[in-house]
Every structure is written in C-alpha cells, then in structure tokens.
Amino acid sequence: MESAQAVGFHSLAKNIGTFNLGQKEVLIPEMCRAASHLLAAAFRSFGIRARVLKTYQGLDLGREFTSGKECYPCQVTMGDILSFVKKEKERLGRDFTPENYAYFMPESDGPCRFGMYNKYQRLVLDSFPGLNKLKISSLSARGNYSVAGILEKGKVRDFKKTVYLVIVVADILNRLLMRIRPYERQPGLADNFFEHSMCIMERTFETHGAEKKHRLILTLQSIVLSRHAAKRAAFSGRFLLFDIIIR
Description:
By secondary structure, the chain is α/β, with parallel strands linked by helices. It folds into 2 domains: 12-143, 3-Layer(aba) Sandwich (Rossmann fold), CATH 3.40.50; 153-246. The chain is 55% helix and 6% strand. The protein has 9 helices and 5 strands, in the order H-E-E-H-E-H-H-E-H-E-H-H-H-H. A 5-stranded parallel beta sheet has the order 1-5-4-2-3. The radius of gyration is 19 Å and the shape is globular.
C-alpha cells in the first residue's frame, strides 16, 4: 500500500467520535482476544454488524506506517486495519466502499499513549485515497465512555449493561487462563479450554445480550467454568474460586 496524499488535522474532529453505527460494519482490533470477541458479539446482539480484525497479519504494514517510537500495540493495530482494507479492496474491487465500515478504537486521557492511537491512525488512513470516509468510532474517558450516539437512544442503557458484563466475563476468562496455564498437564490444554469457553460465551452474548438476560449469561459462565474444571486442568479448587465469585 502506498500513501499518496497530504492530510489535514480537521479530520481529527470530524472523523473520530461517537457515530451511529447502525448501517456500518464495526471493525474491532484484537487488543484483548476475549474482550474483543465478546464485544463484537454484544454489538451483533443489538443489531450492529461487527467483526474482530485478524491480528499480526499486517504487522509489516504497521511498521511501515509508524516510526517505531509508538507503543507496540499501535503498530499492531495500525497493521491490522491497513491489512483488512487492502484485502477487502482486493476482494470487492470497485464495490469496496470505505463509508460502510467503522474502525473501533477508544481512547483514554492521561500520560498513556493509548489516547493518541486513534488520532495517529486517523492521519494515516486519511493519507490513502478514499479512506478518509472510513470513520473511527471512539469512546473516551472524557465522556465516561458514554455509548450515546452509536445506536438508538432506547437501546443505550441495555447496551451499556451488556458491555459491562462483557468486560467482567472477559477478565474472568483471561485471569483463569493465566492461573491454570502454568499447571496444565499437557501443553495447550489451557488455551483449548480458553478458546472453547470464549466461543460458548460469544454465542451466549450474541443470542441473549439484547434480551437483558444477564443472569442467564452469568449462569452459563459459571457452568462453563465448573463443567470443564477437572477435565481441562484438574485444578477444580482453582475453578471453584472463580465460580463462587461469579455467583
């Protein structure tokens, strides 16, 4: 891919923010595997098309369009979105329409460079013909990560509750993986358990997220942990700890 045009800073205000996502496909970078996939499922539950970008496949592109002074995840996610666009343009040809997509990249305040990811990536995308129409959907700490504006007003409250649950469940799965992986009897057992559990919860969020069946989601999470405890790692006591927390 070759960058061919000069960019202006006006796009930082116009093409980054909380836009209505109803008619767009949301592209979510895999900055945390469980959270990204469960979040995409939550979006789909509320009628918004969403997919998780394949990660690390565009790392060469990410390095090409960064200086090396950025945080490493900035290079990775930069490569992820550029690689997706490149392959999508090859797949669709003239039918590729950048405005049909929205790249999801939140931000935070403070000294962390994460607050600059979407701004830098906006400038890079704008340097390619037509990609200035591919908006960046961003939630900000300055707005308490409000989701108002990205979907219909009547769905905002329920969506916030579901996304909060996404974060809780994803954190539990990640923590569980880190706790049991050092003790697995065979290499890969913990990862297999994690992937299997994540897929179950992904289907659960997509099916029940918008139905406000949050207690059912937590119950299924508890069952997943209990059912696979002894079979996957033979550390039932450790799994029981998380099961109690969930309840």
